User: Fold this.
Amino acid sequence: MKSMCKITKNKKGVSPLIATILLIAFAVALGAVVMSWGKNVESSGADLLLSTEKCANVNLKVENVNDIPQIFYGGTGSEGFVKFTIANIGSYDVDQLIVWVIGEKDTNIIELEQSSIKVGYPLIKEIQHDFNKYGSVKKLKFVPKIKIDELYVTCAKNALEEEKISPVS
Amino acid sequence: MKVSSKAKKEVKEDNFSDEIKLQLAEKSHLTSDIEKAISIYSKKTQASKKADESEKIKKIFFKEFFDRVSYGFGSQQFINILFFHTGASYFVVGAINGLRVILSIILSSFLDEYSKVRQISRRFIGTTGIIFGFSFIFMAMARFFHSVPLFASALLIGSIGAVSYGEVYQRLFRDTLKKERSGLLRNIAQYGLMITGISILLAGFLMDKFPAIGTPISLFGFKLRIFGYFIAFEIAAISLIISGYVLSFIKEKQIKSIEKRSPLTQLRILFDNLKDNLPAFIKNKTIMVLIIATIITGFVQILGSSYYGIYIYETFKYSYFKGFTNVAVIFLIAIMTSLFSPFIARNNAREYGKFPMLVFGTLLMAIMPLTYYYNPNLLSISIGTLIGFIGAAIVGVSHGLLTIDIMSEKERKAYFSIYSLLMIVPYLIMIPLGAYAAQIYGLRTLFLLLGLILALVVVPLYFLIIVMHKKEKI
Assistant:
């Protein structure tokens, strides 16, 4: 009983230094919990959901003039080229394009530099095409890449394909 | 028995003293008569004063309501997002926010000194409120025309209006109402948080429902396009204008000026005080560390709050509740912490000491930007923001309590006027640098930097003081 009284009467408490260390430990633990909370479970799910949602807002279209898709090929041998005009008619900016040029012999995959397309804007590009190596152009596929939270996400399901490729006039 | 005119005056001014009773007794009146006469007169005047006070409280309550509505609809986070959408770069957003704070510090110091020598009329306060209101209309127009200079000017002018309005209104509030009554009204103001919260949510919803590209509607045969941000900012503007108007009806007490001096002389006195007190503060290591830590913490807060809203909006604009509502929900949760966080801070400061609580509060504040960097999902960002707000409250309360402990009343007055002025020069350098870092390295990197500054610079500063004063409970 006496010792109990001693405990209740002892008003010294913890020293400021100990109190600080205890509080720092508590804050660090709290920070660690918050910063990792849901990172594995929710984050991956949320990231996936987020990228799927954002990719759903991406919509590319090949420009048509008089019902002719604006994708042309020209040149000969290793001096060949493919020229195209595509527009972003979605509601999310495209940061980069991956272009597949599917040829008769092989497929050329190019990560296009400076190929961002803002919403409502077109992209007009000319890319090199080696007819000797890849053969004549059969199909073009445009895969958009978008930026989410400073990370690039490839929207493979939103790729645009075009088979009507005309020779340049 | 008639009560003398002097006694009447004393009763009216609430300074009734035994001296009056003595004077009447000297004129051979019976003590019981004196008490009776005074009590009857006192009751009459008390009743009319009570009615006056109730009338004032009604008006102030009405004014508070409109103020809270405008805080919600014109939330700083929404302003920053719209500023960014107008075309301002990260650098411009940060720099203008910094300039806004610096202007506010200068203006608030000036008004503080000015009010010591001149009485600021309620008409002036009302006018600043109206200017503050109109600045929202100009911001909405600037967003519509994509004019960054117009937006920046409106933001700066608005902040000048806001400071004048807030600072001077607080003084009027203090002077106009009796202590116990203003306490009651302050309690009511706590419920104002709810009004602000509801307004933020409504504003977020409106801005998402009617996005910036405009939603076509047909009204009386006319085809119109409506914009959510226009509606929200119009509501904020109208609320502030009404609030300013209501204020002009509140009767003010005549406050005697302490000394008749020109405001410029008063400012010179302020700078002289600064010159006199600065060496003493520099010599006192504890105060010096406090000043440095407060400046750095303030820098982190200014820069962080310039970008948190933009970051949340941009990261989650297509998910969860949609862009603006996400921001509204997160900041609504955080704002609500102000209902209880000062209470937590005060109790724990008593238990653990003020400096340990400063360390704790600063670390909690650091969690906020670090969460934005390490775990940018809506749930953890919400919790991180909530913890950050609690941390800021803890730091604020502990800082206030600490100044009471380590400084005399006179020193404290000098400290508060000095440290706000001392902030200006470092802010002029640090904020543009921070904004530039945001522009070059992106917001996530900036948040990492801000979190690390708090955890690795400010916390060790406080810790140093604790080690220096190991035995004392400060």
Q: What stands out?
A: Chain B has a mean pLDDT of 82. Chain B is about 80% helix and 0% strand.
